[in-house]
Amino acid sequence: MESTRTNIPSSIGLLALRLGAGAWLLTHGYPKFQKVLAGEFDQFGDPIGLGTGLSLFLIMFAEFFCTIFVALGIGARLFAFPIVFGMCVAAFVAHGDDPWSKREPSLMFAIVYFALIFTGAGRFSLDNLLGIDGRLCKLVGIGRKNYASEKGHL
User: What is this structure's pTM?
Assistant: First the structure.
C-alpha cells in the first residue's frame, strides 16, 4: 500500500484541504491576532475559566499561528491539535447554547484538522521539502513514529 507521502493525488488533496481550510480559518484568527496586538484582552469571553486574556491568546495562537503552520505543512500533525481543541471548546462550550448554524463552522474545522492529525500534511509540505518530515512527530510521539528513521532522516 502506497503512503500518502508518495501518492501524488492524495497529496494534492491534502494540500488543497490544508490551504482551503487554512484560508477560511485565518479569517477568524486574524481579527483575534489584531485584538492581541491592540491589547483588547478584556473584550473576549472566558469559556473554560482561564481568564479572558489567556483565552484570547490561546485561541488566537491556534486560529492564526497553528493554522499558518498547518497550511504550510510545518509540523501539521502537532499544530492541528490546538486547532481541534479550540474548535471543540468553541462549538461545545462558547457556542454550546447557540443554534446549530453558530456551532457548525467550529465543528467543520475540528473535523478537518482532526483528520489532518492522522494523515499528516502529505508530500507537498515544507516539512517534506526540507527533508524533516516525521522528525517532529517522532519527538512528540505522534503519527508515523518510524517514518523518519525509515527514510534516514534521523
Answer: 0.82
